[in-house]
Amino acid sequence: MQNRIATPVGITLDRFIKKKQNDFAFATGELSQLLRDIALAGKIIHREVNRAGLLNIGGAYGTENIQGEEQQKLDVIANIRFIRALRNGGEVCAIVSEEDDEILDMKNPDGRYIVAMDPLDGSSNIDVNVSIGTIFSIFRRTSPVGGPVSEEDVLQKGSEQVAAGYLLYGSSTMMVYTTGRGVNGFTYDPSLGEFFLSHSNIRIPEDGKIYSINEGGYEGFEPHVVKYIENCKKQRFTARYIGSLVADFHRNLLKGGIYIYPSTDKTPNGKLRLNYECNALAMICEQAGGMATDGKMRILDIQPESLHQRVPFYVGSTCMVEEVMKGLS
Ligand code: P6P
User: Fold this and answer.
1) Dihedral over Cα of 220, 225, 230, 232: its sign
2) CA 180, CA 162: separation in Å to the nearest integer?
3) Taking a C-beta distance cutoff of 8 angstroms, is the pair 99, 75 a contact?
4) In angstroms, rounded to a whole number, what is the distance separating the alpha carbons of residues 168 and 160?
5) Per the record, what are the reactions this protein catalyses (predicted)?
6) Is the pLDDT reported for residue 59 higher than 70?
7) 271 is in an annotated binding site
8) Residue 42 labeled ligand binder
9) If you classify domain 210-326 with CATH, what class do you get?
10) Tens of pLDDT along 197-237?
């Protein structure tokens, strides 16, 4: 009897990238190769994450990153793997990583792209087997190819991204990305070593009933955030907070909802980083029909001033983001 649950397998990520490249006027294939390099690193991290408990590569590495956050062993492993894949791919001239204080020169002077990444976001969840993710933004370098990478190369507004995406290491591993022409999701089949198109042209519902915020910070929230949360409770909305940004974002992207990491009395600029967390998710959310702000302005319009700059982050269904911002007017 035919298995009615099995859905037809979509095309592979490689074929999809190639097809979309053909749609791009003057596409040279460099961005296509860069996306493949990221997918390769994602396959490697998938393998490491799924074996963490067996290889004693869970837990703390014993060092801190520039944020003063305790690095997990897999943080360091993921950072090394992505840097190696992108350096060897040859398309990237520099990387900004959550795990490194300074700009990383890839020694690819002919590389035309910059990557900003959080190689393993939510890594403290590894030891309790909760989903984690990789977040990446891709920019074209603005300085002359062949010359030194400039600070302007790596401090571009999110609106200048040529591509953005994330990998979600969850009940299945997915790669979700956009090149500015909609959002598509690919599910990894480890038995074949391939990502397959599983979520074509993702659109976020215009409104939703799921709100994601760490209410432990309630006493330090600004009045408009308190008001919004109270309103969610009055409407009997669903509170869902995994404590892993990519997992919370992905659920809200598919089902509708809002993720908020606001300014608090203890974290006036919030916690999340503009360059390698908020910009990528903001581009994806907007490309899927949603909205992303820092409470006052569009995330993608913010001019970064430093590599590890934090911003308050409101992202998700347009009606929900607009509603919480009403409290500011
Ligand atoms: P809090 C993980 O450290 C992270 O960067 C995001 O993945 C997550 O949404 C957030 O921080 C959780 O922060 O303060 O609620 O524990």
Assistant:
1) negative
2) 7
3) yes
4) 24
5) beta-D-fructose 1,6-bisphosphate + H2O = beta-D-fructose 6-phosphate + phosphate
6) no
7) yes
8) no
9) alpha beta
10) 999 999 999 999 999 999 999 999 999 999 999 999 999 99
Amino acid found at 239:
A
What pLDDT sits at residue 326?
A: 87
DSSP SS3 for 215: helix
pTM of the model: 0.93
How many Å apart are CA 44 and CA 266, to the nearest integer? 37
* Rounded distance between C-alpha atoms, residue 40 and residue 33, angstroms: 10
Q: Look up residue 96 and give its two tokens.
A: 């900004």
For residue 231, count CB atoms less than 10 angstroms from its CB and return exposed for 0-12, middle for 13-18, buried for 19 or more.
middle
**Three-state SS for 6?**
coil
Residue 105 is labelled as binding a ligand? no
For the chain, which residues make up each domain, given as ranges?
9-199, 210-326
What are the contacts of 231-236 at 24+ separation with CB within 8 A? 231/323, 235/209
The whole-angstrom separation of Cα 259 and Cα 247 is: 11
Give the amino acid at 2: Q
Q: What is the pLDDT of residues 264-276, one digit of tens each?
A: 999 999 999 999 9
Q: State the distance from the centre of ligand 1 to the C-alpha of 38, rounded, in angstroms.
A: 23
Please state whether beta strands 210-212 and 238-239 pair in parallel, antiparallel, or not at all (unpaired).
parallel
CATH fold for domain 9-199: Fructose-1,6-Bisphosphatase; Chain A, domain 1 (3.30.540)
**How far, in Å, are 38, 158, 181 from residue 92 at the CA level?**
11, 18, 22
CA distance 175 to 38: 9
